[in-house]
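User:
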Amino acid sequence: MRSRIRAAASIVAALTAMSLVACTDGEPERPPTQPPQTPKPLADGPSELAEFYGQRVRWGSCDGYASSDLGEQAMRVASNLQCTRLKVPLDYEDPDGPTVQIAVLRKPAQGPGKRIGSLFINPGGPGASGVEAAAALTLSPTMTKLATRFDIVGFDPRGIGASRPQVTCYTPEERDADRADDGEVDGSKSGVAAAERESRDFARKCAQRTEHGAEFLENLGSRDVARDMDVMRSALGDEKLTYLGYSYGTRIGYTYAEAFPDKVRAMVLDGALDPEQDAVESLVEQGVGFGKAFTEFARWCVKRPDCALGRSAPLAVRAYQDLVRPLIERKIDLEDGRKLSYEDATTATVQALYSQSMWEELNAGLNDLERGRGERLMALADQYMERNSDGTYSSTQDMLVAVRCVDDPPVTSRAELTEAQRRFVKVAPFLDPGTPIAGFRDACAFWPAKSTGEPHLPDVKGLPPVLVISTTGDPATPYQAGVQLAKALNGRLLTYEGNQHTVFGQGVRCVDDAGVAYLINRALPDEGTRCKSG
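Assistant: Predicted structure:
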């Protein structure tokens, strides 16, 4: 059961670019000036959780910790990486019950300055691997600066990547088949019924194929990840948490801040989610963001002689629809035996709209589509879906649904869902399939576990100043959400004027300098600071 748009950090393209920069133009890595430190666990948690907060960390090889082609590439290129798994309760209300293992990676601090502690990183999703993202981020010049004072630490939240157990819903073959099926654009009564059968089947398979079943599915939301992060903080010997969260990772951040405000040292939240926004409003606002991003892409494209959308920006949406809508009835055969579907073509477009660096490839893919070829668009869709070269998938897509289903109450009214879909295609018309609109209940309506969260303004009394970064042209987490989150946390807002999803650590000097200064010295940028690209 796929989701058209996810709130995820666009690390697939951005971190690949970072890797290339780090391998060519970045400063050579200096050898450690002192042996890596392994601080003793603080064991400062509740007495009933003493065995978890006080567990000793045994670092080892990172072999087998990557679950994607990109992650394996990053781990091959990065140096001085160490990995481990930490034990946490499956259910914090039952600490004597089953446990789960959280995969953790670190690059030990190796600079001349005094080590501050750990910098915990989460790239978003929900469902993206923090282990892989941290490995890739260590290749960026900005993270190299931070690595002189911090251990760079990434973790796979429970159920994800190298953590155990892993949420498992679809097999690779079922995921391929799901992508090839454009049934979700069928707004007829029979089409809605078929889509809901698929939703119910997906939820059932998640419970059947995931170890500990419904009990685990109920205990893998932001509430539980925040508690896991506090166990990690203590086990790694940090009195207070220093955290960098992207996109959905901002929700993990503000959830931690609400639960443990006195345990926060510093927190950078980039590409924010609005804590008061429900699932429907969040989807519609993402539609607004991607609609604007498509408009910017079209304005860029029509200035080019090879623009697949013609030479008129006002007519670009119609030109795009004329290219992709025929795929609903007639898919394109690909060299690997698969077929490019309408859903894959629009997924490819969404993937490219996460960052302007992918616009060239999107235009080339749309030109190919006009000629009856679909390999370029399928490659973009595969990036979004995190499909590996061997045909397997990372756990991201399964976890995206699983976390969303427990983080917020489900929407079960077909009338409300139909209205939401109408609002969505109105603000993102390029994603309008041109078929009758009818809402259907997704997997969350049939989820075998109750939700454990709901939209609300977090209570963060005692929280030190945090830094929220928001991008004016962010398609996935619109700018205003960052404004709202900074206000909710009494934090400082840093504005970036650009067209991409998340920005810190991606080579924008104004943003990176401000973030580094804050994380190291807790020096906030001036009120109203705005950064521009270039």
